[in-house]
Amino acid sequence: MSCGVVLVVLLLLASRPGLAGSSGPGPTRSLADPDPAVPQGEAVDVAVLWDHLRSLKDLVLRLSEQAVAQRLVLRSMETRVQDQQLMSLEHSERIRGLETLQVQVNATRDQMLGLSRSWSRIDDLEEQNSAQDARLEAQEAQVDHLENKNTELGGELPFLEMRLRASESTLEQLRRRNAAQETERVSMAARLTTGESQREALESRLEAEEAALKTLKTESSGVDAWAGVLSQLWVELHTNTSVMASQMDRTERRLDQWMSQNQDPTRVAFAAGLSDSGAVGPFGAETTLVFSKTLTNIGQAYNQTTGIFRAPVRGLYCFLFTVADFLKGYRGVYLYRNAQQVLFSLELNGHGGYASSSTAVPLLLESGDTVCLRLPGSYRLYDDNRNFSLFSGFLLFPL
Question: Among the three residues 243, 262, 281, which one is the final residue of a domain in this structure?
Fold first, then answer.
């Protein structure tokens, strides 16, 4: 609107010569100066018009300032509207975020419920784990016990292998010897059967002759003749009986010889348990242990009454012994050869409960040497029908 007013004023000035100034040469006049060519009344109108123009100019300036102010207000309002839009967008984002947060809260609540159930399951699992730990500890204790026994058996293994090889060699020799002796025994049994058959035949003949003699006694004739015949038959029978007796004596001697050969002094092995009474000792003084439960005693070299082994021949012998107890503390025994101490087997039972220790040793013995185990005065052992404590030995080979 202000721009239109300005244009109208400019058009009026342009239509009146002398108001806007001359474009040609000549002196310049002010708008306030009266134009000689213009009447005086018109000059007054121009002045009024000029005042109006100035008023209009001021009005235009004010309108321009107002327009500028309105533009500024409009821009401020646009800025506020944009800010409101941005805030609305932010509120929308916040609402969506709150909705997402609500979903997350619901999910978290579900997770917390699941977590509480998981904690209860964890408590159950912890109880099960405690039970399994207790079982595992018991199994570990059993494994340790088995490892200790395995170690002990590993120490005995070389001596057992040596004993097995010696036993296999001895067994092969005995098989050959037994085969030969079995053949000889069968032959002797056959000869003995033949001798018994001959003896039975002679006895039958003697009975027949005695029956004939009785018959002859009833007859009165030819008594002397029959007496001579009977005397001759009696002498023959006596001779045959003597021969059979000598054959039977020889057979018995050979059988005795065969039996004595079967009792070879090089076949020596024994094993004996300590006792069925439980605790053995302490005795207050060193005492010979009597292993009274004989399990094996080939060659009768071990005396279960005294607990002493006596070597029947010179050779290399292997002795093994296992001693056990269930009390906490030391346990041990001495091994003696004759009156000489060979070794002292000592071990500590630090945890209590059944524990055992085993020892094996080869010894060169002369014929008549003795070997035994002796218990120190303050020590004790344990044994029952399960044979926890055992003493054994055998001849590896004679020398």
Answer: 262
- Backbone torsions φ then ψ of 374, nearest 5 degrees: -125, 140
| pLDDT at residue 28, rounded to an integer | 44
- 307: in domain: yes
pLDDT the model gives residue 20: 42
For residue 162, the number of C-alpha atoms closer than 13 Å in the C-beta half-sphere is 17
Q: Are residues 199 and 321 part of one domain?
A: no
Task: Give the pLDDT confidence score for residue 377 in this predicted structure.
Answer: 86
Answer yes or no: do 393 and 281 share one domain: yes
**The domain boundary residue, chosen from 262, 293, 316:** 262
Which amino acid belongs to residue 178?
Answer: N
Residues of the chain predicted below pLDDT 50: 17-32, 38
Buried b (16+ CB within 10 A) or exposed e, 210-243: eeeeeebeeeeeeeeebeeebeebeeebeebeee
CA-CA distance, 289 to 275, in Å (whole number)?
Answer: 10
- Whether residue 369 contacts residue 338, with contact meaning beta carbons closer than 8 Å, is answered with yes
Cα 389 to Cα 373: distance, rounded to the nearest angstrom = 12
Residue 101 lies in a domain: no
pLDDT of residue 230: 65
Give the amino acid at 175: R
In a domain, 232, yes or no: yes
Q: Which one, of 311, 328, 327, lies nearest residue 362 by Cα?
A: 311
